[in-house]
Amino acid sequence: MKRLPTVLLATGHGSVDLYQGIVPVLVPVLVPFLVAERGYDYVAVSGFVLAATLLSSVVQPLFGLLTDRWSMPWLLPVSMLGTGAGTALVGLTDDYLLTLLAIALTGVGVAAYHPQAARTARAVTGGGHIGMSWFSLGGIVGFALAPVVVVPLLHAGGLEATPALMIPAVVGALITLPLLRKGAAPKTTRRPGADDWRSFARLTTIIVLRSIVYVGLTTFVGLYLGQRLDLSATGSSAVLVVLFGGGVVGTLLGGRLANRWGRLPVMRVAYGTAAVGLAGLTFVPGFVMLGFVVVTAIALSVPFSLHITLGQDYLPSRVGTASGVTLGLAVSAGGMVAPALGALAETTSLQTVLAVLIVLPAIAGLLARRLAEPAADQMTVV
């Protein structure tokens, strides 16, 4: 693993996913300010969320197709600057349509970045599991830092302060520039093996199941533990810190464990462990539930970077497409299912929602048992 290029790419990934964490349903940082200062109703706000999340996720595979056809390393800094510009422009207009277009620009920037970035990460790291885990970690940290960075800024200056949010994009673009030569002329070694679409579809299903569980946890686990353990609002929010902390640990562990025991064995054990962890935090009483939160968070995060490399190896001639799906379209499933989970919680209970989620990683683990490592002659180095 080339450490400095990997760290630079991971940092750039974090700067992009910082913006991805600003508007989405899970971390609605901008939404309260848009409601308070502009008077938008919840229907209008839902349009912002749709523009920022669904648009970016659906468009990512299209950018993946483009990067499979042409070498476009310039997309990295351009998409970063576009993402930052979209967020910065939100505070400069009172018009709803223009605000919607600004947020849409952020979503398109996120979509344009990830397929090319994943190709570049593969070139920089040589397709190594540890390198890709660091690349993935950058995005996770950036997403988690969104409220930490943005909320104090907007509390201090209101929406008029959003132009300052251009700074992370500029920094990310600058530190990525030295990597463009690495991605300028990617060499794709095409070998006799064909793309394995059946295995890729099965892997995509696994990623969708993981996404639903992760979104369900980040949405409801703080409330659930707050009820069960009689925690304050601050204490309930702190549960998310535990969840994100476990995600960081799990992402780093994934690459190292895969180097030792292989991707698929690690994925199978991780999803089985996640199901056990979910069962523990759902039904075991007392503060030991916090321990199960840690176990579940780590187990769900271990396969994250492995999904990316496995998807690229299943589609050796379409690495950009594979990256766009594994990082974009499949991941959006959790956000689209979140309203249904909320409705279930309203009609039953939070415990029922978590109990339903137990089944999903168990199914993912079973599906992973039906996957096989791609044949050596199907893999490519990009």
Structure described in brief:
With 382 residues, the chain is mainly alpha-helical. The chain is built from 16 helices and no strands.
Explain what this protein looks like in three dimensions.
The protein is mainly α and 382 residues long. The chain contains 16 helices and no strands. It has helices at residues 3-20, 30-38, 42-69, 75-89, 96-125, 129-157, 166-176, 180-184, 197-229, 233-261, 263-283, 288-301, 304-314, 319-329, 333-347, 350-369. Helix 10 (233-261) packs across helix 12. It is globular. The chain starts with a helix and ends in a 13-residue tail after the last helix. The model is unreliable at 184-192 (pLDDT under 50).
Blueprint (SSEs and pairs):
Elements lengths: L2 H18 L9 H9 L3 H28 L5 H15 L6 H30 L3 H29 L8 H11 L3 H5 L12 H33 L3 H29 L1 H21 L4 H14 L2 H11 L4 H11 L3 H15 L2 H20 L13
Helix pairs in contact: 1-4, 1-5, 1-6, 1-7, 3-5, 3-14, 4-5, 4-7, 5-6, 5-14, 6-10, 6-13, 9-10, 9-12, 9-13, 9-15, 9-16, 10-11, 10-12, 11-12, 11-16, 13-14, 15-16
Distance between the termini: 15 Å
Strand content: under 5%
Can you write the helix and strand succession as a string? HHHHHHHHHHHHHHHH
Q: Given the helix and strand composition, which structural class is it? A: mainly alpha
- Please tally the helical runs, counting DSSP H or I stretches of 4 or more residues: 16
Shape: globular
The overall pLDDT, averaged over residues, is 83
Helix content: over 70%
Largest sheet: none
From the alpha-carbon coordinates, what is the Rg to the nearest angstrom? 20 Å
Number of DSSP-assigned strands:
0
Low-pLDDT parts are 184-192
